[in-house]
Design a protein that fits this description.
It is a single chain. With 362 residues, the chain is mostly helical. It folds into two domains: 174 residues, no CATH class; 150 residues, hpI Integrase, Chain A, CATH 1.10.443. It is built from 13 helices and five strands. Strands 2-3-4 form a three-stranded antiparallel sheet, with no helix packed on it. The chain has a two-stranded antiparallel sheet with strand order 1-5.
């Protein structure tokens, strides 16, 4: 998918930030790191552990935090899962090193391999688990929450499957969209568009199933695309404007689907990756949600949970006549953007995880 697939993002609500960078929260993170490092005896091992945490903090914060200024207790599984996926991408070491040099003008660029060796990735993951366990032992997070913060290999799978009918946060939705972006498959843009329309447009499963190519309203003069949608029993149809990332997902999906009349969202065959021009079933949409949740480290949810989760934001957007100034988006990250960034996040108490794959920005 295109490098601009997730930026600039839509205006975000004040509570949509992934992390709070208040002095109190940063101090908790420092205490957790100190507690973890106190259990590492050898000097070389401590150096390796701090380097591993530095790498993680840089990826998660977009280069604005090091291992001692990051609130580790605020991590959740969808943060850790996507961060580790980014670190495993080809070219990640050079991009992370370049990002560190931009953030610290005293740092000289070091020659790095094209990929992190498996041993380094394991060290990073182990350090992550240990610092999360330190957060739990210090009482900064509940033991149950710490289980869900640890990547899937250590997580309690039954605890994940037990969740039913819940509201998703914007951070979780961004993680789901990033999981789609990081996968090169025919279904990836379809899934991204469905997830976004469900959350930002409030469309339920039955609404997504009934969308057709005729539901797309193209405005060549304004270079916009809207979804025309009429709920059962409603007097009028409403228009759902597609955001920048939706437009790119739609373009990629239509390239695979074609422009033939019929259902907008169609099944994709597993082996041949061919698109079948028929409606996607409710069970298939539920399977998409389960698959993407597993990839992104997000707790299970139903398709209609997405629609319910986005409704408060939709109501607020309808009441607002003037747009609020946009917050820092994933596109502003020095790790995943092409240009330099002069913004200083240390003046802000909010941090949004830059959900972008290393591959997508190359």
């Amino acid at each position: 998918m295109s490098a601009e697939a997730y930026g600039p993002a839509q205006d975000l609500l004040p509570d949509s930030a992934d992390f709070r960078l208040s002095p109190q929260e940063i101090e908790k993170g420092q205490k957790a790191v100190d507690a973890f490092l106190s259990t590492v005896k050898a000097v070389d091992s401590q150096r390796s552990a701090t380097e591993a945490l530095d790498t993680l903090a840089a990826v998660i914060s977009g280069g604005h935090c090091d291992y001692r200024s990051f609130p580790w207790q605020q991590l959740r599984a969808h943060h850790t899962t996507l961060a580790l996926s980014i670190i495993k991408e080809r070219g990640a070491p050079a991009r992370i090193e370049a990002m560190r040099c931009r953030a610290d003008d005293t740092r000289k660029f070091q020659q790095v391999p094209e990929n992190y060796p498996a041993k380094s990735v394991q060290r990073i993951r182990t350090s992550l688990v240990r610092v999360i366990e330190a957060c739990s032992s210090l009482g900064f997070i509940d033991e149950e929450d710490s289980t869900l913060m640890i990547p899937r290999a250590r997580a309690d799978q039954e605890a994940r499957k037990a969740v039913r009918e819940r509201l998703l946060t914007e951070g979780e939705v961004r993680a789901l969209l990033s999981a789609c972006d990081m996968e090169e498959s025919t279904a990836a843009p379809r899934d991204a568009l469905m997830i976004s329309l469900a959350f930002h447009g409030g469309l339920k499963t039955v609404d997504l199933i009934n969308l057709t190519l005729d539901s797309l309203l193209f405005d060549d003069k304004k270079s916009t695309v809207n979804i025309r949608f009429k709920a059962p029993g409603a007097k009028r149809a409403r228009k759902i404007p597609l955001q920048n990332e939706d437009l790119i997902a739609l373009e990629d999906w239509l390239e695979a689907r074609g422009r033939e009349p019929g259902a907008l969202f169609c099944p994709v065959k597993d082996r041949s990756h061919a698109v079948e021009l028929k409606r996607l079933s409710a069970g298939a949409i539920r399977e998409v949600c389960n698959s993407r949740a597993d990839q992104a480290g997000v707790l299970p949810f139903s398709p209609n949970d997405l629609a319910r989760s986005g409704m408060p934001k939709l109501e607020m957007a309808r009441k607002k006549k003037k747009a609020t100034p946009p917050r820092r988006s994933a596109a502003d990250s020095v790790l995943f953007a092409d240009g330099d960034s002069d913004s200083d996040l240390t003046e802000s108490e909010d941090l949004i995880f830059p959900y972008r794959s290393v591959r997508a920005s190359s």
